[in-house]
């Protein structure tokens, strides 16, 4: 009887959490984040495979970064079928990955690819990513075979989508 009640409760909880009759996928929890040095990350910033990449540099301690993340998640969802990939490059401190970054990813149900840039030579990689970048966050790189644009600013969804369309 207890087992049946549990499954009934689970079923109705899932049913109530669904919007407009759509079943929402239960996401698996993230347990690790791949860590890259700049030299390891560099190929992700220079791909020429027919896709358009939107690479956002952010951190959990950056309030403007957190505010704009839903725009990147929405872009990832709406443009995945249009050969666009969103990559969220975390600049969180490596010692805080388990206690801060991974819980943040799970709590906010991030679906975009999240990686950690773990390289202390910021004087080298900041300028290598874009010569105009001061190192401030948030920052975003949008690129494909047609072009490359770098932004040291925050985005809302409309502005982000508009900038993406200029390079598609």
Automatic annotation (TrEMBL):
GO terms for molecular function: antioxidant activity; oxidoreductase activity. SUPFAM superfamilies: Thioredoxin-like. PROSITE patterns: PROKAR_LIPOPROTEIN, THIOREDOXIN_2. InterPro entries: AhpC/TSA, Thioredoxin-like_sf, Thioredoxin_domain, Thioredoxin_ResA/DsbE_sf. Gene3D superfamilies: Glutaredoxin. Pfam families: AhpC-TSA (PF00578). Residues 3-168 form the Thioredoxin domain. PANTHER family: THIOL:DISULFIDE INTERCHANGE PROTEIN DSBE, THIOREDOXIN-LIKE PROTEIN HI_1115. This is Thioredoxin.
């Amino acid at each position: 009887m207890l087992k049946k009640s549990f499954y009934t409760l689970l079923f109705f909880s899932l049913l109530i959490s669904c919007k407009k009759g759509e079943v929402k996928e239960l996401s698996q929890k993230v347990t690790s984040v791949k860590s890259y040095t700049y030299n390891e990350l560099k190929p992700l910033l220079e791909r020429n495979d027919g896709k358009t990449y939107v690479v956002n540099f952010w951190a959990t301690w950056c309030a403007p970064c957190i505010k704009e993340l839903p725009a990147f998640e929405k872009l990832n969802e709406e443009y995945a079928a249009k050969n666009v990939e969103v990559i969220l490059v975390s600049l969180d401190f490596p010692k805080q990955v388990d206690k801060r970054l991974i819980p943040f990813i799970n709590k906010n149900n991030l679906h975009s690819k999240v990686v950690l840039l773990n390289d202390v030579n910021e004087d080298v990689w900041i300028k290598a990513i874009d010569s105009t970048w001061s190192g401030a966050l948030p920052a975003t790189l949008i690129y494909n075979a047609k072009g490359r644009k770098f932004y040291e600013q925050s985005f809302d969804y409309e502005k982000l989508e508009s900038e993406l369309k200029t390079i598609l």
